[in-house]
Amino acid sequence: MRRKSNCLHFDAHVGIFLRVHDQSDLLQNVWMDRTALVEVFKQILEGYDIHKPETILKVSQKSAAHHDGTLPYSLLTNLAHANLWQGFWLQKLAGGRKKSSMIEWRDDFRVPEPSELEALRFEFISGLREAARIAGSDPFEHKCTNDEEAVETLVRIAVHGSYHLGQMVLLKRSLKGNKP
User: How many Å apart are CA 57 and CA 76, to the nearest integer?
Assistant: First the structure.
């Protein structure tokens, strides 16, 4: 289904304004060469706008798991959520299920054990690197139905990952005034 729209679209990571008349053409015209998508992942991984993921996630188990009720969840819970969905989308790119199910929704925003921090941190950062590798692969390496579906999935990984990294920065900053 093609949605007609005369909206102004701003992509904060690429920093371009586009007058979009046909939303379905956006991905074809802007992302299909994947140059901009590769740049988005580069900026996320190299810390252009906020710190690198490794720096953001450099926190003790105790601090990562700290939740005093003033914010909706801990940094660790946020990381587990971001990692869960990133993993689902990476599996989709590898030929896995295309639709989420109760498998994902049951564990969405679960409260992990502090001992899970290292594994979640490693998996999340590795997943971002894998998505960046796929975005820049030539030929384009994916098992989605078509390139557009793969690009949409990679865009989702980039946007969701950077959104949650920003939240993790805020959660980490909140700990400075509240050392557990």
Answer: 9
